[in-house]
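Posting this for the archive.
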Amino acid sequence: MGGTPEVANRLAAQLLSDFPGLQVAGIFSPPFRKMDENEVESMVKMVNESQADIVWVGLGSPKQEFWMAKYRGRLQALVLIGVGAAFDFLAGAKPQAPKWMQRIGLEWLFRLATEPRRLWRRYAKYPYFVLLAAAQILGLKKYPLEEAK
C-alpha cells in the first residue's frame, strides 16, 4: 500500500526476483488526495479480498500511521506495518544514505539534503516531539491514543 503505481510495480517485481517463493497478494497506490467514500470502500474490499496476512504501508510519516489507525478495524490482515520510504528505496526510485550515515543515525540528514523542500517542515517538528515524549515519560503529561485521530 503506497507509492506511485510505477514504484509499486517495480518493487513487486524486484521482491519477486529477490525472493522467488514470496507471495505478493496485491499492490495498491492510493491517490495523492483524500479518497471519497466509494474509493475507500473499494480499497478496503480489495485489501480484504487479497487475503494478505501483512499489509506493508508506505505512505510516509505520519500519514501511514494515521491510515493504519483509521482502517485497522476494517481490514482482515493480521498485521499492518508502516515502512516509510522503504518502497522507494527498494524499487530504486530514491537513493539511500551511505552505510556510514545509516550506522551513525544520520540517514535523516541525507534525506533532508536530497529532498529539502519536501522534508524540512516534517523534520522541523522533531525537537518538539522529543519534548512531548520526554514530558510523557516523566509523567508530566499524558497523551491518550484517542487524540491521535
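Residues 28 and 114 are 26 Å apart (CA to CA). The chain has a mean pLDDT of 89.
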